[in-house]
Amino acid sequence: MWNPIVNVDITLNTAGTTREGxxxxxxxxxTDNFEERVRGYxxxxxxxxxxxxxxxxxxxxKQLWSQTPKVTQLYIGRRAMQYxxxxxxxxxxxxxxxxxxxxxxxxxxxxxxxxxxSDTAENVLQQFKTQIEADPTIKDKVSVNVTGSNxxxxxxxxxxxxxxxxxxTT
Length: 170
Prior knowledge:
- The protein is α+β, with helices and mostly antiparallel strands.
- It folds into two domains: 26-78, no CATH class; 82-169, no CATH class.
- The chain has helices spanning 44-50, 56-65, 121-134; strands spanning 26-29, 38-41, 74-78, 82-86, 96-103, 107-114, 142-147, 154-159, 166-169.
- Strands 1-3-2 form a three-stranded mixed β-sheet.
- This is DUF3383 domain-containing protein.
- It comes from Salmonella typhimurium.
């Protein structure tokens, strides 16, 4: 005859890891909030300085720091991003269009174009592409491609060369 009795001992070790760099969480985010590839954080308040409470990175950090044992630090890595620029409305004469392209090393360049009477979205975006590719401060740091035609054209701007950061604002 047998008895179905099991003894289980559970020990909760609340001490953190002792080897630096091991056991530290890394989250990846599609963000342009900072230039460096990886940024370390030691509190949720620090994370909130870079990420809105509704972002996945903030929510993940909040969940992580609600656990026991708590980690003392976490890292958020930045994925390489590309930007798609389009003109949603029909282009009208004398309308001013502008974008700003930022790249690694604190470079930020504004570009502006005033539409002519026969311009389409493709013409406006091609003008931006021409300006960016002629600008010696940024031309080697980004790649610019215009696809589509007439009103359905889009412009894609991504990092290039040894540059590791690009941000486009309109």
